[in-house]
Amino acid sequence: MTKTMRAVEITKPGGPEVLALCDRPIPQPGYGQVLIKIAYAGVNRPDALQRAGLYAPPPTASDLPGLEAAGRVEAIGPGVTDLTLGDQVCALLPGGGYAEYVVTPAAHCLPVPDNMSLDQAACLPETYFTVWSNVFMRGGLKAGERFLVHGGSSGIGTTAIQLADHFGACVFTTAGSDDKCQVCRDLGADFAINYRDQDFVQVINNEGGADLILDMVGGPYLPRNVKALADDGRLIQIAFLQGPQVELNFAQIMMRRLTITGSTLRPQSDLAKANIAEELLKHVWPLLSKGSIRPIMDSEFPLENAADAHAHMESSKHIGKIVLKVS
């Protein structure tokens, strides 16, 4: 094995054009880590935020973008006992996925589900870790509850719709076109709301209000989400595409016993992420292996065309996940 690898680095904060191909040393796994030879890497909104200079990686993480990948285990660090060389895995990464090789904690790796290709598997970790930990572990979604996820045609949205539907929730979602709304309905959404034509607050309140809302829009959606919640409802915030600051009347929260919470995945401890991986392996991976749920792929770009992948993601024309073909 050579000592260097191809990678895509962020040359300076800016638009997609600041992503450039480079050569980097191949990282070496430390205690509890594995080295993965990447076949495909997922492209996610946090990658674009990091590229723009708005989402710094943790101090111990690679400066290269990329939070999920699929490939095979190439080397094993001390203390790893449950993976062997050559295992095909998909993995949540602290960074560094836009490269031919990456190191990550072995506990953040999951087996590629049965009958699933590596490009599909690369679509799983970031979205499934995020949705499961927020909607089910933090949000406590139960069968029969009314669940609203914004951005239903995104990677997060297509994942949340399928999981919530499978576990018996009544699923509402928003999307920006009639075609995207139809995709959401095909995946299991009971109500798909074109936010350009309809007011999601009115639609969901006509059905009794949402017990749980998963939102990544923020900004003006925050007070509207509060209005859309049923009494004792929960709002979970995982991103702020339209900004984190807004005026909000907390009297409604007190009087109607609402809960507002949220999380980001990347800064959480290795142990917390390992716990999420265990939950996914137990509750979700059997569904993926049986084909009961599936990742929705939009498009594939070569590693050297990462800038085009980012431009496509930021156009919001995609449905589902975008991946980079690395090797």
TrEMBL record:
SUPFAM superfamilies with a match to the protein in the record: GroES-like, NAD(P)-binding Rossmann-fold domains
Entry keyword NADP: yes
Positions of the Enoyl reductase (ER) domain: 14-324
Cited CDD domains: p53_inducible_oxidoreductase
Keywords recorded for this protein, A-Z: NADP, Oxidoreductase
Matches recorded under NCBIfam families: quinone_pig3 (TIGR02824)
Protein name: NAD(P)H-quinone oxidoreductase
Native source species: Parasulfitobacter algicola
Lineage: Bacteria, Pseudomonadati, Pseudomonadota, Alphaproteobacteria, Rhodobacterales
